[in-house]
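Reviewer has doubts. Consider these tokens.
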Amino acid sequence: MTNLSSVNMRTFLFPFLLFSIVVFAQDEPTPQVEEEWNKGGKTTLLFNQASFSEWVSGGENSVSLSFHANYDLNYKKNGWSWDTKFLGDFGLTKLSGSKYLRKTSDRFDVQSLLGRNFSERWSYSALFGIKTQFSRGYKYNTNEEGIETRTLRTHFFSPVYIELGVGLYWKKSQNFWINVSPFTQRITLVSRKFTTDLVETERYFGVRKGDNHRFELGSSLSALYLFSPLENVTLEQRLRLYSDYLDKAENIDLDYQITAEMKVNERISTNLIIQFVYDDNAVQRLQVREVFGIGVSVALN
């Protein structure tokens, strides 16, 4: 897949948006309890392992370990609300025959929404977001002698995406909300070490040769829906869209993550994470990440 047209994007997102519209139409108002600070979250350690011995169909021994954190900080009083979420994960895997540890996940993501109610569930909103990674990222290759090599591609705060926007915030609960910001400024910051040697037509996450930033002005949509379809099973959908008015507005950036947790007991669970990312400033293909494993979870207060 080399590109995503606006039609394909609409087709992909239609079920989610249709469901939201149906919920809005059928929703009955419920009284809200005025409260102040509310906080909490959890951390999960996931483990995956594969081992083969004389396995005729082939396979590579591997061990993977990943750490995931999810934390919410919420404030509500006198019609004002302030909702902040932190998402962090970092994972490594070791493949047999490879001399390098490889990352399976790396995410540092903070999103904060300040709202002022003008009805029971609607608010004017101000959005702040920051997204980057914790550690260095590499592109792996094999040279002419068959030796594995790697080239530095990213590191902490290169790139980093910073968003500031204003718009409208609809919130049914902590587990179901949508924010639309028709005026959102996004700045991409990078290290010049990655742009100095670019040719004039090349871009590093959209940043030109010799520069260390890219400015965008567009619209954004972010949404969260978390529910329990079955006993001891929770399903979380997290969606983020961005369109740049100043450059190729039809190329909508997508970050859509589905997280399923199936509880075994209070501490042990199986976890499945599927993430779809499209950003043609990074790569003009749909990026897909899937992580599945046995997890140990600890609640945070």
